[in-house]
Amino acid sequence: MTIKIGDRLPEGKLAEFIETETEGCSLGPNSFNVSDLVKGKKIALFAVPGAFTPTCSAKHLPGYIQHAAEFKAKGVDEIWAVSVNDAFVMGAWGRDQKATGIVRLLADGNADFVKALGLDADFGKFGMGVRSQRFSALIDDGVVKQLNVEQGGKFEVSNAETLLAQLA
Question: Dihedrals φ, ψ of 61, to 5°?
Fold first, then answer.
């Protein structure tokens, strides 16, 4: 079953590569409970099939970086990029795209979270295994308020501009 507007996000864990050690977060990959991360926050979440892939790197992530201040001005606490990659790859992608500190790059290494959302996809024919469908969502205190799922490999509704317009 696919998650829909009005549903609460399922329990799950996502990992983030922490660049600077702080109290409670060591340097390197750290695992977080999604329910803890979303508590009391408004999150602009988007998911991509893979870090460093062409559309994801040239359009999807850059759009959210470019519009980050506008999201903040409309009450969004955090922007998340989720992908079925490991935290090391997500950290490297964030550094490469200069997203560190702007967008949280969260790894769903085994696709458990996107499977729980019902938004996983089989990219086996491309040698990539199970990945995430391309989508965006607005999450408010753990509840899905907007959901934009791309169809057939397109990049039309999950971009930053669409989600930003839905906040108006």
Answer: -60, -45
